[in-house]
């Protein structure tokens, strides 16, 4: 009788597990469809005939394959300067961000740094209380950074959130015995940081580098505030202006419009999708190469002390 009860219990557990797994699979499929279909639609709409897109015939597959939207978008002269500016802001800004983050996180991770708690609490305050847009703009203006490339880099040179993640990684993943061994071998703190800590911290460095790089790549709001020269605008700001000009072109339509103007008005609809692809493609290409570090770094850096 006892064995029969155990068999029934195991059967019920297996049945409930199967039902739970089936529910999870169905839910995740629906969730994946919700996220994947808009991305897929952007791709097929960008390479479809603008007329087919305008009348709503493009749903799952491209119709009337064409790359005219990409050609017209790339003819925009500021696209190339925007690409160059964004690459500069992303590369230089990310390098500066990593240096500043490591320089802030490493002392806070050391137990022999007496003021670490006080400094840590000061950094936490800046996460929840900021000076606001106008005081920040006045500081940047007084520093002479307005309408310069450094206005896109220096004001956001360090993120407290990333400092906390990096600090936690240093404290939980780098054994204290390594510091003692390095000290016995005659290494100072700078040598210990550069030759031992940083080589062992590639996962978390990849994580914060990805965070910073994506932030720089997608940043357009900072350019709206501090930049006036079109030659300094990042790619996202250039694409924003392009989309606004397409919108204006589309609103100029009427019943007596010429065939060329009508063609360009319809083409402007698909140019919106091509600009999305142009702006996001580099990040999508780079992400798979740092994905393994990203997952590992997030899991290790999130361990509580």
Kindly state the number of beta strands. 0
Low-confidence stretches: 250-256
Integer-rounded radius of gyration: 26 Å
Principal-axis shape equals: flat
Helicity level = over 70%
Order of helices and strands: HHHHHHHHHHHHH
Biggest sheet descriptor = none
What percentage of amino acids are in beta strands? under 5%
| Number of DSSP helical runs | 13
Give the structural class. mainly alpha
Mean residue pLDDT: 80
- Alpha-carbon distance between the two ends: 49 Å
Account of the protein in words:
This protein has helices at residues 2-46, 50-54, 68-74, 77-109, 116-128, 133-142, 160-173, 176-184, 189-200, 202-218, 221-226, 235-251, 259-301. Helix content is 76%, strand content 0%. The radius of gyration is 26 Å and the shape is flat. The chain is an all-alpha fold and 305 residues long. Helix 3 packs across helix 13 (259-301). The two termini are 49 Å apart.
What would you say about this model in short?
The chain is mainly alpha-helical. The chain contains 13 helices and no strands. The protein has helices at residues 2-46, 50-54, 68-74, 77-109, 116-128, 133-142, 160-173, 176-184, 189-200, 202-218, 221-226, 235-251, 259-301.
Ordered list of secondary-structure elements with their pairings:
Elements: H1 2-46, H2 50-54, H3 68-74, H4 77-109, H5 116-128, H6 133-142, H7 160-173, H8 176-184, H9 189-200, H10 202-218, H11 221-226, H12 235-251, H13 259-301
């Amino acid at each position: 009788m006892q064995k029969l009860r155990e068999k029934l219990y195991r059967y019920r557990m297996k049945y409930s597990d199967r039902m739970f797994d089936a529910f999870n699979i169905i839910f995740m499929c629906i969730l994946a469809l919700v996220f994947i279909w808009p991305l897929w639609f952007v791709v097929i709409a960008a390479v479809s005939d603008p007329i087919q897109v305008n009348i709503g015939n493009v749903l799952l597959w491209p119709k009337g394959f064409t790359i005219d939207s990409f050609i017209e978008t790339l003819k925009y002269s500021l696209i190339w300067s925007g690409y160059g500016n964004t690459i500069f802001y992303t590369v230089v800004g990310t390098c500066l961000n990593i240096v500043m983050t490591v320089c802030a996180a490493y002392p806070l991770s050391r137990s022999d740094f007496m003021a670490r708690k006080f400094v840590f609490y000061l950094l936490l305050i800046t996460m929840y209380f900021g000076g606001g847009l106008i005081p920040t703009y006045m500081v940047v203006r007084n520093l002479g950074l307005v309408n310069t490339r450094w206005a896109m880099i220096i004001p956001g040179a360090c993120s407290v959130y990333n400092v906390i993640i990096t600090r936690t990684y240093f404290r939980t993943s780098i054994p204290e015995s390594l510091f003692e061994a390095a000290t016995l071998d005659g290494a100072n703190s700078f040598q210990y940081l550069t030759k031992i800590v940083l080589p062992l911290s590639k996962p978390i460095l990849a994580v914060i580098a990805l965070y910073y790089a994506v932030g720089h790549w997608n940043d357009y709001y900072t350019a709206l505030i501090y930049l006036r020269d079109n030659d300094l605008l990042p790619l996202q700001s250039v694409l924003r202006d392009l989309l606004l000009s397409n919108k204006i072109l589309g609103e100029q339509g009427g019943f007596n419009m010429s065939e060329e103007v009508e063609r360009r008005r319809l083409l402007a609809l698909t140019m919106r999708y091509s600009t999305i692809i142009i702006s996001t493609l580099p990040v999508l290409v780079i992400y798979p190469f740092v994905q393994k570090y990203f997952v590992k770094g997030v899991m290790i850096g999130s361990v509580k002390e």
